[in-house]
Amino acid sequence: EVQLEESGGGLVQRGGYVRLSCTASGFSFSSYWMSWVRQAPGKGLQWVANIKQDGSEKYYVDSVKGRFIISRDNAKNSVYLQMSGLSAADTAVYYCARARVVAREYYYYYMDVWGKGTAVTVSS
Amino acid sequence: AIQMTQSPSSLSASVGDRVTITCRASQDMRIDVSWYQQKPGEAPKVLIYAASSLQSGVPSRFSGSGSGTDFTLTINSLQPEDFATYYCLQDYNYPWTFGQGTKVEI
After folding, report:
1. Do A111 and B100 touch (CB under 8 A)?
2. What confidence category does residue B7 fall into, taking pLDDT thresholds of 50, 70 and 90?
3. What is the pLDDT at residue A117?
4. pLDDT confidence of A105, banded at 50, 70, 90?
5. What per-residue confidence (pLDDT) applies to A124?
6. What is the pLDDT of residue A64?
């Protein structure tokens, strides 16, 4: 069964650091882009970061640039999100997702497998 | 960043109704849009990718259309399990951006 499982969330102090992990199973992890998406309480979805199959390309939403780092370890079938300089605005459920690419006249991406999410709460 | 303006923000519908949700992009983005369904307490689930391609396993009552700046998700014959929040997402360029969401209520 294709699965993603996040871990590492919890209560963290303002200005603090947390590292989220996402472990994949049931598919060839190293063949896929991976994403992190977050959802603040009662709010909509926000894409956070992407990482290419070999880790050579990384992209971030502007609000986390310089504070968050996405990385992966293909040998461990895992993707990570290191989060520092945390504020209340980072309080959210963080989802890990597999980004699938469809090659036609252009490349089209979509997130077809999602984990259940891990909650991060930033306290003051 | 590209803005995805989704409308309506919520709607009330009945079982059997046809429902249409739209997303308007702030710039031309070919067909680089996907649609997601999210139920309370659950992770999102992809319904449509590349504007109109139905994800495997998704019922055919869901359909997507559009290109350029205007995109539509249509649910034909709404079923009880379709009451949820729906989001569009653009992957045309970074940062990827979601629409604000449309809550479909009974």
Report:
1. no
2. very high
3. 98
4. confident
5. 85
6. 98
Residue to mutate among B96, B100, B103, with most A CBs inside 10 A, is B96
CB spacing of A95 vs B96 below 8 angstroms = no
Nearest CA in chain A to B36: A111
CA–CA dist B79, B106 (Å, integer): 10
Task: Find chain A residues with C-beta within 8 A of B96's C-beta.
Answer: 47, 50, 109
Give yes or no for a contact between B38 and B28, defined as CB atoms under 8 angstroms apart: no
Q: Spell out the SS3 assignment of chain B.
A: CCCEEEECCEEECCCCCCEEEEEEECCCCCCCEEEEEECCCCCCEEEEECCCEECCCCCCCEEEEEECCEEEEEECCCCHHHCCEEEEEECCCCCCEECCCEEEEC
Longest dimension (CA), chain A: 49
Distance from CA of A42 to the nearest CA of B (A): 10
A26 Rama sector, left if φ>0, alpha if ψ -120 to 50, beta otherwise: left
pLDDT tens digit sequence for B16-33: 999 999 999 999 999 999
- Report pLDDT digits (tens) over A71-85: 999 999 999 999 999
- Token output for A32: 């896929």
Question: At A116, is the pLDDT very low, low, confident or very high (cuts 50, 70, 90)?
Answer: very high
Q: Do B32 and A106 touch (CB under 8 A)?
A: yes
B100: which 2 tokens?
A: 């604000």
Q: Within chain B, what is the greatest distance between any pair of CA atoms? A: 38
